[in-house]
């Protein structure tokens, strides 16, 4: 069978890596991604391991890389993707990379600092020139000396020394939101001994944030020493930039010119700085991506080397790793190749192991999604039967049973087909949206689900809830009308009439493919469909569960537990088929043998089944077949007799085996080799089942056989199976429930939306225009409710049926996956 | 109407009744074929049998051979079983469809 049937064989290998070649070997193994290292230094803390210094250096480098990356991002550039296939660098290259990185980082920091300082300076210059510039506006000396005379009668101030009416100026810039407060405070504090004019300047680039910020410049003219001091204190308090303001206009103009010259020079210098910065960033862009990959790989190699133990001679490292048997030759070759470069040779050999190996199942992009949904429940134990290859078909099939509609299935199929055909496009592969990635990851799943839904839609005869008469219907209304004399007058009086299959010619035979289209016209179509779908669910359920029990046979055979075939599988099958297989038989028998002629007295399967368990009978319910009164009790007794077999069989057998081994061991105490014959058997068996801790001889340290534990485990299994049979069979009725819900929803949508739109009267033009929004509503609701909501719902229930009802018959799912040491970045 | 064409009962009884065109309306009548049970069973059993039993022999050798064979067999079993259940459920109906009088009028004149 294909390799998906069960896990591949995985063995534990021991690697002897000479210290000179250890790094190269592990680096090569990382490129190949074949082995999973076991941590041999688990008891040692991370700080005491051998290569902790190297790991730390790599981590520091990674911090510097992060800083460089941030700088690149801030400048608005992107890092190009590194080319593939870069190997991990040699240890001596680490020093060189470290030096270069530090140099680059330092340069970048210096340049950035310079740039900041220059920008701040430029900002100051610009503010100063703006302040000086505004002074040219309103005429100064005249109005200012007039103003205060008008405004304040206190010009003849009480203080004698204030004879000089010389006007002084304070000029500066303030942020606009503080300007009003400043003005008010100045007015209140200086009581009108000043005149302040505020003006807004065009936005200047803020040196820190780089965004344009508006500033307001002010010019305060005042007289008096004390006022001057107050003003300065106030402006200090408001963190304004104050600049010297010369009264004479020529001097101011000269100062302005000087400032402009200065700022021009500064801008040139700034330009040069920024050019240099972009040069440095360009170098970073070029060098950083490969370094990042290389250092990541190096760190991974050192972390893997930390897991190895050192041999007593300190000449080589010993590593233990899980490797698939199929990959052993590649492993040999790789190690030989890497270690021969250093002139030494690495050794690989298999060692036996008690622990359960990890599970390895190779999948391609088609089977990966199905294996994914099985693994989501639990990764299989080593070498137990893998349900995934069957799930590829049964999961979409059970989904389709609950979703069956040709139209909806077709839409789902086309959507999945679009995704599959576009799967190699880079835009699609690198999309980041979570929900899209979920759908994209399950594209093959959706493809099969859509395909099966189209098939079940044809069988249910539903296309957007409408039936199609591909073949002529098997029910003839004309025959009924003629035979029963349904005249027009009679029909006008009777709103509902039934077609009677007993009347000749009414029923012409079963519809060859699916459900007859006449049922979609019938008022009592649910009566028929419910009966059909419930029976279908039970039949599918019993078949699925029986298949699960049969798969358990392969597990028992593989692990050599032949007794379980007789003591577990056989009683399970008898129980399941004796009770529920019999139910399926009753259903099929009634379908085949009970005709319409005897419809009035048709036996009820439900009553028969209930009476079977109660060991009673109903007189009004005639038997289906002769001998039924004998067969039913026999089956029940047989099934009940299987319960103690299931409960006690395996534990008692194991107990007997254990006692036999013990007595044998006591007779031959010094023959260790006697156990070797049983060793492979026992180790396989112990890998296979939890309760068989009774190893046979040779395993002195094997866990002792605790009878009570085994009994407990078996009792739980028995109860779970027997009660589970009943509850799981009933659980499959969700197939009926969900398909009914889907059919009803889809019918409601059709009748209420589309049919109402199509049956609108009026002229052609009006109806056509109205149909557009009607169809839009229909389409949106179909996709949102029927495809997305019902699709997710059916998906969930099909998943539950697989995980619980199917897999608990044979699958334990308590293993772990082989996660090889590899440099490939996980995209999951 | 049809009743006038074939007097009551004779042509409705599990026989093929072909008529070229409806006397009144001039549209061709659909043939009232009795559906046999054996023919679909033979056809579909053969079809799914070919897929499920003969198909596996033709799958080319490769790493995926086992998976493809499993898929073919599972598809054949599931689809065949589902179709079989549908046809068996309608083989001997115990009751017939209950139709509204408008539906009866319409079907009487359109389908037959």
TrEMBL record, chain A:
Q: How does it sit in the membrane?
A: Multi-pass membrane protein
**Does the record carry Coiled coil as a key word?**
yes
Q: Where is the signal peptide?
A: 1-24
Locate the region Disordered: 136-158
What Pfam families is this protein classified in? V_ATPase_I (PF01496)
Ranges annotated as spanning the membrane: 397-422, 443-460, 506-526, 538-557, 569-589, 596-615, 635-654, 735-753, 765-789
Coiled-coil spans in chain = 58-114, 245-276
Note the InterPro entries from the entry: V-ATPase_116kDa_su (IPR002490), V-type_ATPase_116kDa_su_euka (IPR026028)
Q: Which keywords describe this protein according to UniProt?
A: Coiled coil, Hydrogen ion transport, Ion transport, Membrane, Signal, Transmembrane, Transmembrane helix, Transport
- The answer, when asked if Transmembrane helix is one of the entry's keywords, is yes
Compartment(s)? Membrane
Q: What does this protein do?
A: Essential component of the vacuolar proton pump (V-ATPase), a multimeric enzyme that catalyzes the translocation of protons across the membranes. Required for assembly and activity of the V-ATPase.
Can you tell me which family this protein belongs to? Belongs to the V-ATPase 116 kDa subunit family.
Q: Which PANTHER family match?
A: V-TYPE PROTON ATPASE 116 KDA SUBUNIT A 3, VACUOLAR PROTON ATPASES
* Name by which UniProt lists this protein: V-type proton ATPase subunit a
Which gene holds the coding sequence for this protein?
Answer: TCIRG1
From TrEMBL, chain B:
Parts of the chain that traverse the membrane: 37-59, 66-89
Q: Which InterPro entries match?
A: ATPase_V0-cplx_e1/e2_su (IPR008389)
A GO cellular-component term linked to this record:
proton-transporting V-type ATPase, V0 domain
How is this protein situated with respect to the membrane? Multi-pass membrane protein
Instruction: Name the keywords, alphabetized.
Output: Hydrogen ion transport, Ion transport, Membrane, Transmembrane, Transmembrane helix, Transport
Q: Which GO terms describe its molecular function?
A: proton-transporting ATPase activity, rotational mechanism
Q: Where in the cell is it found?
A: Membrane
Note the PANTHER family from the entry: V-TYPE PROTON ATPASE SUBUNIT E 2, VACUOLAR ATP SYNTHASE SUBUNIT H
Q: Which family does it belong to?
A: Belongs to the V-ATPase e1/e2 subunit family.
- Name assigned to this protein: V-type proton ATPase subunit e 2
Organism equals Balaenoptera acutorostrata (Common minke whale)
């Amino acid at each position: 069978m294909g390799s998906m049937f069960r896990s591949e064989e995985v063995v534990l290998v021991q690697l002897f890596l000479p210290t000179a070649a250890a790094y190269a070997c592990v680096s090569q193994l990382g490129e190949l991604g074949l082995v999973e290292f076991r941590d041999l230094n688990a008891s040692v803390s991370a700080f005491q391991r051998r290569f902790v210094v190297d790991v730390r250096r790599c981590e520091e480098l990674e911090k510097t890389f992060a800083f460089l990356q941030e700088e690149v991002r801030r400048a608005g550039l992107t890092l190009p993707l590194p080319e593939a296939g870069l190997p991990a660098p040699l240890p001596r290259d680490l020093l060189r990379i470290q030096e270069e990185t530090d140099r680059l980082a330092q340069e970048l920091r210096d340049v950035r600092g310079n740039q900041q300082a220059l920008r701040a300076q430029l900002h100051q210059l610009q503010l100063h020139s703006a302040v000086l510039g505004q002074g040219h506006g309103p005429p100064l000396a005249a109005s200012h000396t007039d103003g205060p005379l008008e405004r304040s009668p206190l010009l003849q101030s009480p203080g004698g020394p204030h004879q000089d009416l010389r006007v002084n100026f304070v000029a500066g810039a303030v942020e606009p939101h503080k300007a009003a407060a400043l003005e008010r405070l100045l007015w209140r504090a200086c009581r009108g001994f000043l005149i302040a004019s505020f003006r807004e300047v065009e936005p200047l680039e803020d040196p820190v944030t780089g965004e344009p910020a508006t500033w307001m410049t002010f010019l305060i003219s005042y007289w008096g020493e004390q006022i001057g001091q107050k003003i300065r204190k106030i402006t200090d308090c408001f963190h304004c930039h104050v600049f010297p303001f010369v009264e004479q206009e020529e001097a101011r103009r000269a100062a302005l010119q000087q400032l402009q010259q200065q700022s021009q020079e500064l801008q040139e210098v700034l330009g040069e700085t920024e050019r240099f910065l972009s040069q440095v960033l360009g170098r970073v862009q070029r060098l950083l991506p490969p370094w990042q990959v290389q250092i990541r790989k190096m760190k991974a190699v050192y972390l893997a080397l930390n897991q190895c133990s050192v041999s007593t001679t300190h000449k080589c490292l010993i590593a233990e790793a899980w490797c698939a048997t199929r990959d052993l030759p590649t492993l040999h070759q790789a190690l030989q190749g890497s270690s021969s470069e250093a002139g030494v040779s690495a050794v690989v050999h298999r060692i036996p192991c008690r622990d359960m190996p990890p599970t390895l199942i190779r999948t391609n992009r088609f089977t990966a999604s199905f294996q994914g949904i099985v693994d989501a429940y639990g990764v299989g134990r080593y070498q137990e039967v893998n349900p995934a290859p069957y799930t590829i078909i049964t999961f979409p099939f059970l989904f389709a049973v609950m979703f069956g509609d040709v139209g909806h299935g077709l839409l789902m199929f086309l959507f999945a087909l679009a995704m599959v055909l576009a799967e190699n496009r880079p835009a699609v592969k690198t999309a980041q949206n979570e929900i899209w990635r979920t759908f994209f990851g399950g594209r093959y799943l959706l493809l099969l689900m859509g395909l099966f839904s189209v098939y079940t839609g044809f069988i249910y005869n539903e296309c957007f809830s409408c039936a199609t008469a591909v073949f002529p219907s098997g029910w003839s209304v004309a025959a009924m009308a003629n035979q029963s004399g349904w005249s027009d007058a009679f029909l006008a009086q009777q709103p509902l009439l039934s077609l009677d299959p007993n009347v000749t010619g009414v029923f012409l035979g079963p519809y060859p493919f699916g459900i007859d289209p006449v049922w979609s016209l019938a008022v009592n179509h649910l009566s028929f469909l419910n009966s059909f779908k419930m029976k279908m669910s039970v039949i599918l359920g019993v078949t699925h569960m029986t298949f699960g029990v049969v798969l358990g046979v392969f597990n028992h055979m593989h692990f050599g537990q032949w007794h379980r075939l007789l003591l577990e599988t056989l009683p399970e099958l008898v129980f399941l088929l004796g009770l529920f297989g019999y139910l399926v038989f009753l259903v099929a028998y009634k379908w085949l043998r009970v005709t319409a002629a005897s419809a009035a007295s048709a036996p009820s399967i439900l009553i028969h089944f209930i009476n079977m368990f109660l060991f009673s009978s109903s007189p009004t319910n005639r038997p289906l077949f002769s001998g039924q009164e004998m067969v039913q009790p026999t089956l029940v007794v047989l099934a009940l007799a299987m319960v103690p077999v299931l409960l006690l069989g395996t534990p008692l057998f194991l107990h007997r085996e254990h006692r036999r081994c013990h007595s044998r061991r006591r007779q031959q105490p010094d023959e260790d080799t006697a156990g070797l014959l049983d060793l492979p058997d026992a180790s396989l068996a112990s890998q296979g089942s939890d309760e068989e801790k009774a190893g046979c001889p040779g395993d002195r340290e094997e866990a002792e056989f605790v009878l009570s534990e085994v009994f407990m485990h078996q009792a739980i299994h028995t109860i779970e199976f027997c009660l589970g049979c009943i509850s799981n069979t009933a659980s499959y009725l969700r197939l009926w429930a969900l398909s009914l819900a889907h059919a009803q929803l889809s019918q409601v949508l059709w009748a209420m939306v589309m049919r109402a739109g199509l049956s609108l009267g009026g002229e052609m033009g009006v109806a056509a225009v109205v149909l557009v929004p009607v169809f839009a509503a229909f389409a949106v609701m179909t996709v949102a409710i029927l495809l997305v909501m019902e699709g997710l719902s059916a998906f969930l229930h099909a998943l539950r049926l697989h995980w619980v009802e199917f897999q608990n018959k044979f699958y334990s799912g308590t293993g772990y996956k082989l996660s090889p040491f590899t440099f490939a970045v996980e995209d999951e | 109407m049809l009743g006038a064409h074939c007097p009551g009962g004779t042509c409705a009884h599990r026989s093929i009744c072909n008529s070229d065109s409806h006397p009144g309306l001039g549209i061709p009548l659909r043939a009232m074929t009795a559906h046999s049970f054996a023919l679909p069973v033979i056809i579909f059993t053969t079809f799914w049998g070919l897929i499920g039993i003969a198909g596996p022999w033709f799958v080319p050798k490769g790493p995926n051979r086992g998976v493809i064979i499993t898929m073919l067999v599972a598809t054949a079993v599931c689809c065949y079983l589902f179709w079989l259940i549908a046809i068996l459920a309608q083989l001997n109906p115990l009751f017939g469809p209950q139709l509204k009088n408008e539906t009866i009028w319409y079907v009487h004149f359109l389908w037959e």
